[in-house]
Amino acid sequence: MTWWFGRFYDGHLDQVQWTGAWNPTPLLTLEFSGERDVGRLQAGDFTATVVGTRARVNLSPDLNIASYAQYDTATESIGVNTRLRWTFKPVGDLFIVYNHNVRDLLDRWQLDSNQLLVKLQYAFRYYSVFHFAVA
Questions:
Q1: Residue 3's closest CA among 41, 45, 34?
Q2: Are 78 and 71 in contact (CB under 8 A)?
Q3: DSSP tag of 124
Q4: What is the pLDDT of residues 60-110, one digit of tens each?
Q5: In whole angstroms, what is the distance from residue 1 CA to residue 46 CA?
Q6: Rg (alpha carbons) of the chain, rounded to whole number
Q7: Chain-wide mean pLDDT for the chain?
């Protein structure tokens, strides 16, 4: 747990952050985090809270799935980011990422955005041998 405080623009900000992790098995890790910001400015006071949780499952040394869910009181939205990473060669990885955000929890979880990304990363390695002759 961390508490930050001090000057913030023309006022004062208190920020409290907390994190925790639980690793019940080598295959599963659960993380919890949060942040609360309380600001007092000449233009007005504000309070914002962000809480989140992450689950990571290591199916094998070459395949893992991680998912992060977060709630933000400033935007009143929930965001979820899920990533699959497969290392198919020591120089190659495939990522499949899905992002889903909803807003207005009281109005049937109104969709804010959806995104599906696929990324292929591969490193090409080559070796070159140079011979120099001096006469």
A1: 34
A2: yes
A3: -
A4: 999 999 999 999 988 888 999 999 999 999 889 999 999 998 876 666 666
A5: 21
A6: 23
A7: 90
